[in-house]
Amino acid sequence: MVAKRILPCLDVKSGRVVKGINFVDLKDAGDPVELAKIYNDAGADELVFLDITATHEDRDIIIDVVYRTAEQVFIPLTVGGGINNLGQIKSLLRAGADKISINSSAVREPDLINRASDRFGNQCIVVAIDARRRTKDEYLGWDVYVRGGRENTGKDAIAWAKEAEQRGAGELLITSMDADGTQAGYDLELTRKIAEAVEIPVIASGGAGNCEHIYQALTEGQAEAALLASLLHYGQLSVATIKDYLSDHQISVRK
Q1: Is 143 a catalytic residue?
Q2: What rounded mean pLDDT belongs to the chain?
């Protein structure tokens, strides 16, 4: 049985880790390199850095963060935010990233997935999908949002996930915008429907509030990994506590 993964996510803005609710009301959560080392030592399986401002000025900051983090941690590092060409991907991989996450640029230019996968291998290309339910009253599907959740593309999230896989994505990072930061639980329906539609690993993101939510994402949601942020950053849970809970509930995890 393939072990399930626990991935701390560090949203980086101007060189600092921040966390909000539903993509807004951001609060400072610490230094990214310090947090990365803490999670590395605590037994996290991978780390995810997302440059949520993704401006030209901050690009040098995130590369510096990646360089400094790669010197301190020894687990896979995924980096995303504002990446829109092969040159940026190459620079981040050279700086120490193991995987690159693309979101808005992949929607605007889907062929970027093909070219990145062909050039660097699909094992290091993650397509991130920010999705919001079309209505909270009845099931009408999910729309794909870009530009940090500010722009609705009108694309269907499940159809886009399938296309991303066909174009060469090696993994999908699925964030429920409705659940993000609420600690009310993952959108299990969204995660499950995408996991059932593709054959590549799906990472569940947005809404974890306790160990039971993570267990549900990895079982009912059929995710291969769970992404966590505020729960870990503010000390409500530890990686060890989560893994012990999952192990006690017959979920294979790396110790």
Answers
A1: no
A2: 90
Q: What distance in Å separates the CA atoms of residue 119 and residue 168, rounded to the nearest whole number?
A: 11
20 burial (CB, 10 Å; 0-12 / 13-18 / 19+) is: middle
Exposed/middle/buried for residue 206 (C-beta within 10 Å: 0-12, 13-18, 19+):
buried
The yes-or-no answer on residue 130 being catalytic is yes
Average pLDDT over residues 42-69: 81
Cα 90 to Cα 95: distance, rounded to the nearest angstrom: 9
Of the residues 45, 58, 130, 187, only one is catalytic, namely 130
pLDDT band at 28 (very low <50, low <70, confident <90, very high): low
User: Whole-angstrom Cα distance, residue 149 to residue 46?
Assistant: 24
Q: Which DSSP symbol is given to 223?
A: -
**Does the structure show a pLDDT above 90 at 216?**
yes
* Cα(236)–Cα(246) distance, integer angstroms: 16
For residue 52, pLDDT beyond 60:
yes
Tell me how far apart the alpha carbons of residues 139 and 171 are, in angstroms, rounded to a whole number.
Answer: 26
pTM reported for the whole predicted model: 0.92
Which strand (E) or helix (H) includes residue 153?
strand 151-156
Residue 57 clears pLDDT 80, i.e. is over it: no
Give the C-alpha separation, 3 to 121, whole Å.
22
Mean pLDDT of 51-68: 73
Query: 143 and 156 in contact (C-beta within 8 Å)?
Result: yes
% of the chain with per-residue pLDDT over 70: 90
- How far apart, in whole angstroms, are the C-alpha atoms of residue 198 and residue 166? 9
Radius of gyration of the chain (CA): 17
